[in-house]
Amino acid sequence: xxxxxxxxxxxxxxxxxxxxxxxxxxxxxxxxxxxxxxxxxxxxxxxxxxxxxxxxxxxxxxxxxxxxxxxxxxxxxxxxxxxxxxxxxxxxxxxxxxxxxxxxxxxxxxxxxxxxxxxxxxxxxxxxxxxxxxxxxxxxxxxxxxxxxxxxxxxxxxxxxxxxxxxxxxxxxxxxxxxxxxxxxxxxxxxxxxxxxxxxxxxxxxxxxxxxxxxxxxxxxxxxxxxxxxxxxxxxxxxxxxxxxxxxxxxxxxxxxxxxxxxxxxxxxxxx
Length: 272
Fold this sequence. Notes:
Elements: E1 8-13, H1 30-38, E2 43-46, H2 51-61, E3 68-70, E4 75-77, E5 90-92, H3 97-111, E6 115-117, H4 123-130, H5 134-140, E7 146-151, H6 155-167, E8 170-174, E9 179-183, H7 188-203, E10 208-213, H8 219-223, E11 227-232, E12 249-255, H9 256-267
Parallel strand pairs: 1-2, 1-10, 2-3, 10-11, 11-12
Antiparallel strand pairs: 3-4, 4-5, 6-7, 7-9, 8-9
């Protein structure tokens, strides 16, 4: 069982996990977030969101200066304290956004696929799609190594599209509301493993990692931590983990930040 006295690292999904799926509220998690800040425990936010969005959420959650993994693993933001790192302040994995957009435009032109990218529309449209404010929508469109899109074609055409995407060395990730296209090298689990190794090399200690997520797209995150919290979610698809041993994995009874708190209460002794 992990303890607060250990060298801990927390890796958490945002939407539906640390943030309520409907309201984006997070207050139920504030106790643990405050304790982690007090004890200098890294809290690594992991999401399909853009880096610009993640930085704003870090400010909101009191996590500024911490590392994060954005755009489904395509962006790794290093801790602010690692200014001496050769890759500071962040690493972009694989194909850059401009090249991705050119590839998608070529596919659409050549094969007639029907989809709409964030890059195709303005901030107001993304705001209407998502319920975000215009400013938040603007941040959501600031992609660096991935693109979000809405599919507007048949399932048969989607299969053909997915095959052509794979041929280009890219992959598709289904988020809560949108599809995302990223380089095949981009993977949240792989990014998290790299970040953990860097922490361990720099600090000379072995970290105990706890991951929290609520949907199938969080599987790579949850498969690459020592302890995993599957926060109760709204996806109809089950989360299938490589190692679902009850000693390693806890399934919460509550949704969102209440489930996030519940999972940490389960794994970390409360006397701390």
